[in-house]
Amino acid sequence: MVTIPDPHLAMVRPVTPRTPRGCEECLIEGSPWVHLRLCLTCGHVGCCDSSPMKHARRHAGSDDHPVVRSFEPGEDWRWCYVHEALV
Fold it and tell me: Residue 45: which of 12, 74, 21 has the closest Cα?
């Protein structure tokens, strides 16, 4: 079986986290988060799906930036929200 790479990986760019201290929206709203995700298209830092506001998923959908990586220390996995899969 041949595995075809996720086409959304073409959207991955070298990025700098826009808010390295935490989720961009949660910092503004004063909301808590559980884990952080870094958008690999623009550098948006958002909270994960286990967080109350799910800002990383919202950003992926509203800005059409589907690929994130974990922004947690020691983690280096990437996720595509469109395919709901590790990439």
Answer: 21
CB 40 within 8 A of CB 69: yes
Residue at 8: amino acid letter: H
CB 6 within 8 A of CB 85: yes
For residue 64, being part of any structural domain is answered with yes
pLDDT in tens, 41-78: 999 999 999 999 999 999 999 999 999 999 999 999 99
pTM higher than the cut 0.90 = yes
For residue 74, being part of any structural domain is answered with: yes
Q: Is 8 a member of any domain?
A: no
- Using an 8 Å Cβ cutoff, are 56 and 48 in contact? yes
Helix (H) or strand (E) holding 39: strand 36-39
Give the Cα separation of 25 and 46 in Å (integer). 7
